[in-house]
Design a protein that fits this description.
Chain lengths: 411, 244
């Protein structure tokens, strides 16, 4: 084997310029593949993590996934209901604190009650629609990052004045409100509350910052006109990937609709899957193109070395040994190219990571890059496989050289 | 390197010196699809230990084809080839390669040295492929072979830095590397000047006389052929002299 390796190394070293071209082809392929994978996965992870961090992992509401069957439907087969009107007031979750206690008995994470309603916020003659979420600040800390997103105040400021409200910073900017200002909050039913802005928050997600506001549970219940109502549970779990299964269990246990973050962003996640498919196709194509370089080099070497192959075979080298020589040459080019490509990919990732980037949807300051060994391993695997195939074809042809024909031609 | 041990072992078992090293019995080789060309026809030949055989004949008469059949580089269309009385026609590519590696040494008109390797590395190549000796023994043998052919000062030169005669001597050293029983030389002096030709022939003569190896040389040169122990003349693929 050492002899075969020596011959292979001698061949590729003696064709240094060609070897370098092939090597750079593989290196570029691997390098750009690594960079592309790191960038794509980095942006995906960054987006998902922002999304997951800014919302509860599971939201259980007072809705049912399927409308409850009416008693008449159960009794008479011919009965059909149509044009049923949605009740003006939400029913709320029955015995919410009992449910919280039941969930906390097995759930690894935290549960917080909330009241969700829509309202129109008015300040200085400017109106804007907003979501008003009533929360329990002590429990809220465990289910969202709201406490860390507060700007100019604290979450506990909600306790400091009656009808205190925390606004998204862009929402506040839209109506021109500042901390300490008194604003009017009008519910859909026409009830108007005068609230004091005690803090602002900035989540980094524009949609949330422009439309979301937080009050104490009691304030939101007054606004909804339903004292004591809890119409949503905000749940945070330790293992975010299990959120979907946990949501199903909660739904089965309580009967209320529980939506995991995966379900809430189903369209987005399936778009990511398509994006990943495209990414790996492009990465594969890049490496395939690089492998043509390797094929070209090994083909050239086998063509140039036909006479040497003939003499090796006349000396007693088998077809298998000759095939191995050229296969090893291709793999050596592939391996060396891969190592250089890894370095190139890493450097490109670092360089890309320094580029500032401003998204209209969220405020990332730099291109998010995800570093993982699997990108390097996949790129190496594809590059080496492509090199092996690229080397095998000319190697097989070389091994089939009939020495007599070559020796006759050379004599 | 892949080696087939079966034919090698069989060859070792039948090593009586009186037995022919290579035997051709009724060997014919034809080539071509549709229009067939007969390269050699119904050849019977025995190559024995210590023999220096010269094969002569006009161009295209089948001299080299006969040599390639003797060296298992080619397979006869009909007839049988025996190496030390072991029939080899039915052997696979791997087994035939193993016999070539250990029993036969080739010297061609063109030296066919690997251009990137030094003379020393070229001579070591068959030994490394066979793998019978350790590295130190291979080095010693390669050095001794090159020195015996007057190349002690040129061992570490690549073929490009050697003269035609020197390259051919390196090729002879390589052919002798695995101590083959038979040396097959195809126009070994064809590209050499008269002085180098004389030198090569002297080496061959000494090799046969001193080591008892068999040597089969294809040549156009009747003066060189006259120095052999036995001459075989081929015309149109058939042995005409001496009569088969």
């Amino acid at each position: 084997m050492k002899l075969i390796l020596d011959i292979a190394v001698t061949h590729i070293v003696s064709r240094l310029r060609q070897t370098l071209v092939g090597l750079l082809g593989v290196a570029m392929g691997v390098g750009f593949s690594v960079m592309m994978a790191a960038l794509m996965e980095g942006s995906q992870r960054d987006f998902v993590s922002q999304l997951v961090d800014n919302m509860p992992h599971i939201t259980m509401t007072d809705e049912r996934r399927n409308p409850p069957r009416q008693p008449a439907e159960d009794t008479f087969d011919v009965v059909q209901f149509s044009g049923l009107r949605t009740p003006e007031t939400r029913p709320g979750i029955k015995n919410p604190y009992a449910i919280i206690a039941e969930l906390e008995a097995w759930l690894t994470g935290a549960v917080a009650p909330s009241v969700q309603s829509r309202a129109v916020i008015r300040f200085a003659g400017r109106d804007t629609a907003a979501n008003v979420t009533g929360i329990d600040p002590r429990r809220e800390r465990d289910v969202s990052k709201l406490a860390t997103q507060i700007r100019g105040g604290t979450l506990d400021a909600l306790y400091k004045s009656s009808n205190a409200i925390i606004l998204g910073d862009k929402l506040a900017a839209k109506i021109g409100a500042r901390i300490g200002n008194t604003i009017s909050v009008a519910s859909g039913r026409g009830d108007v509350l005068t609230c004091t802005v005690v803090a602002l928050f900035h989540s980094g997600i524009s949609q949330s910052d422009e439309t979301q506001s937080y009050t104490l549970l009691k304030t939101a219940q007054i606004l909804a006109g339903q004292t004591g109502i809890i119409n949503a549970m905000r749940i945070r779990v330790t293992s975010i990937l299990e959120a979907m299964a946990i949501a199903r269990r909660i739904e089965a246990q309580t009967g209320y609709k529980a939506v995991s973050w995966q379900e809430a962003n189903e369209d987005l996640l399936s778009a990511f899957e398509i994006r990943n498919f495209i990414m790996y196709t492009v990465v594969g194509a890049i490496l395939l193109v690089a492998s043509f370089g390797t094929y070209n080099i090994i083909s050239t070497i086998t063509h140039e070395k036909t006479r040497d192959i003939a003499i090796l075979k006349s000396l007693g080298f088998t077809e298998k040994a000759v095939r191995r020589i050229f296969l090893i040459e291709a793999l050596l080019i592939g391996a060396a190219g891969t190592v250089i490509g890894w370095a190139l990919g890493y450097v490109l990732c670092i360089a890309l990571g320094t580029i500032s980037f401003k998204s209209p949807f969220m405020d990332a300051t730099h291109l998010p890059i995800h570093y993982t060994a699997s990108h390097y391993a996949i790129a190496a695997l594809v590059a080496l496989s492509a090199s092996a195939v690229a080397g095998y074809l000319p190697a097989r042809k070389a091994a089939r050289v009939h020495p007599v024909e070559i020796i006759r031609g050379a004599s | 390197m892949e080696r087939a041990d079966t034919p090698d072992m069989a060859l070792s078992r039948t090593s009586a010196s009186a037995d022919p090293l290579i035997t051709l019995r009724g060997v014919t080789k034809t080539i071509g699809d549709g229009v067939l060309t007969t390269l050699v026809r119904d050849i019977d030949l025995e190559v024995r230990r210590g023999e220096f055989i010269a094969i002569t004949g006009p161009s295209g008469s089948g001299k080299s084809s006969l040599l390639y059949l003797l060296g298992l580089l080619d397979v006869p269309t009909s007839g049988e080839v025996f190496v030390r009385q072991v029939p080899v026609n039915a052997l696979g590519e791997q087994a035939r390669a193993a016999i070539r590696l250990s029993v036969i040494g080739f010297v061609f008109q063109f030296h066919f040295l690997l251009p990137e390797f030094t003379a020393f590395a070229n001579v070591k190549l068959p030994m490394r492929a066979l793998g019978r000796l350790d590295d130190a023994a291979m080095d010693a043998r390669a050095g001794a072979l090159l020195a015996s052919l007057g190349l002690e000062d040129h061992m570490h030169k690549t073929p490009g830095r050697l003269s035609g005669g020197q390259r051919q001597r390196v090729a002879i050293a390589r052919a002798l590397a695995n101590e083959p029983h038979v040396i097959l030389a195809d126009e070994p002096t064809g590209n050499l000047d008269s002085q180098s030709s004389e030198q090569v022939l002297g080496i061959f003569r000494k090799l046969v006389d001193e080591t008892g190896r068999a040597l089969v040389m294809v040549t156009h040169d009747l003066d060189l052929a006259a120095r052999a122990d036995r001459q075989i003349r081929i015309v149109d693929g058939q042995i005409v002299e001496p009569s088969a």
